[in-house]
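Quick one, tokens below:
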């Protein structure tokens, strides 16, 4: 994959192939500006202006490109993505509109992500050279690249198999943030977790030594700035534990660390954007393995908060490690906690793979996240935290159970479990995200995927950035 930083460059009137954008409604009128041979070339390519269509038009000894979009005057993140995937190596710029210039704006994002390739384990036979896009919006280039790189970091981490993206590799991703931004980090590993983070220890203790559990706590920013915490579920592989998953259910469980990838990427955006906050990033990283010392159904676990949790299902492990991490995050008395987790199948059944389920304590925070998501093509969908369902987590012998015994409202009930570990009065948003795209769309390849990341980043920028 070409370096992302090279794919968007300032337009200094250098040579470039023009890209014209049209839609179905305007195609006929636009095509009348072409020669007969040019119209015939597009007809031969069956180009009609439909979304994501790409055409090549001869122009004397040269050529230009044309792309179909929904609205040429209001570009989305994905309007140029198919062009970036299909056009040959080269340098491009949007053709000027009548009476003015054209710039890619939000479509820079899809131009960048469309050129993502995961080639860690093989050469890409379809690899082509870079497609470079020019823009006069020079100040927008750096933020667009940072945002796309954060999204692609999630994709890369989730795409990487569990053996190479275990707890130690997740720790290394956090260490890279420390080095890049001058942050500080404390990591607690193995049996040392038993005292302060007993649920993290219990879930991860059955893994092989080189996949030992750990809790990373990164801090950055000036004391006195508003405190925010970002927490991510880092289950590098989920066998289900002793309540073992089926082969089909286990097949994609390398992606169960997707929450940690989102949290790490968001922390990177916060630091790269120099947001004036005091950041706490907490990532519990474990492998939910099967061994003689694996935690069992019916066990009662201690927690950092002091509550006791009966284990109704060892496959409901993500909420356990998040519980200890959320407790620790709450001890900093943050204004806001955001957590990400590939937590429940119930959220996928309700919303499918493309919409992340979001739960918040405050309506204002939900509205801000939804608005930011809509504006940046990353819309979450709010699910409730109904008080009436707290009884589903009741236990006869402990303060609570980690799994309900009925099939109802599984995503919300998991959210209610987490809510017990968030400090009283703290603004909190929880994303139950899939972290995976089961089918490709322009700019969004099949595989690891970031959902809710851009919504969270732009909400934080609006709330804490310069006014």
């Amino acid at each position: 994959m070409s370096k992302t930083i090279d794919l968007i460059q300032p337009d200094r009137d250098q040579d470039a192939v023009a890209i014209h954008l049209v839609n179905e409604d305007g195609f006929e009128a636009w095509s009348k500006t072409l020669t007969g041979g040019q119209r015939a070339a597009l007809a031969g390519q069956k180009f009609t202006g439909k979304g994501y269509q790409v055409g090549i038009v001869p122009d004397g000894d040269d050529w230009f490109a044309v792309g179909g979009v929904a609205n040429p005057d209001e570009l989305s993140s994905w309007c140029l993505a198919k062009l970036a995937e299909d056009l040959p190596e080269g340098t491009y710029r949007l053709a000027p509109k009548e009476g003015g210039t054209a710039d890619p704006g939000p479509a820079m994002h899809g131009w960048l992500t469309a050129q993502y390739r995961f080639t860690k384990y093989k050469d890409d036979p379809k690899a082509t050279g870079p497609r470079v896009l020019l823009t006069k919006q020079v100040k927008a280039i750096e933020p667009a690249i940072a945002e796309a790189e954060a999204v692609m970091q999630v994709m890369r981490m989730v795409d990487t198999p569990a053996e190479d993206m275990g707890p130690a590799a997740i720790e290394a991703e956090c260490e890279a943030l420390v080095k890049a931004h001058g942050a500080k980090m404390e990591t607690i590993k193995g049996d040392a977790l038993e005292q302060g983070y007993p649920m993290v220890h219990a879930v991860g203790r059955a893994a092989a030594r080189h996949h030992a559990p750990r809790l990373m706590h990164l801090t950055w920013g000036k004391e006195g700035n508003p405190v925010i915490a970002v927490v991510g579920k880092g289950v590098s592989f989920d066998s289900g534990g002793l309540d073992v998953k089926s082969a089909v259910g286990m097949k994609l469980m390398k992606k169960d660390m997707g929450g940690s990838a989102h949290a790490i990427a968001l922390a990177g955006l916060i630091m790269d954007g120099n947001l004036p906050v005091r950041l706490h990033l907490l990532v519990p990283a474990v492998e939910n393995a099967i061994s003689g010392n694996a935690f069992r159904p019916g066990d009662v676990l201690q927690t950092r908060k002091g509550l006791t949790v009966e284990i109704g299902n060892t496959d409901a492990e993500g909420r356990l490690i998040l519980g200890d991490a959320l407790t620790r995050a709450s001890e900093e008395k943050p204004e806001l906690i955001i957590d990400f987790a590939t937590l429940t199948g119930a959220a996928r059944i309700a919303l499918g793979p493309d919409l992340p389920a979001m739960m918040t304590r405050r309506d204002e925070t939900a509205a801000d996240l939804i608005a930011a998501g809509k504006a940046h093509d990353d819309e979450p969908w709010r699910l409730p935290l109904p008080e009436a369902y707290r009884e589903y987590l009741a236990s006869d012998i402990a303060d609570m159970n980690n799994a309900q015994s009925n099939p109802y409202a599984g995503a919300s009930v998991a959210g209610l479990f987490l809510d017990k570990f968030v400090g009283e009065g703290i603004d909190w948003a929880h994303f139950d995200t899939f972290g995976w795209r089961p089918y490709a769309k322009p700019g969004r390849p099949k595989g690891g995927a970031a959902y809710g990341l851009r919504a969270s980043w732009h909400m934080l920028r609006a709330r804490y950035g310069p006014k």
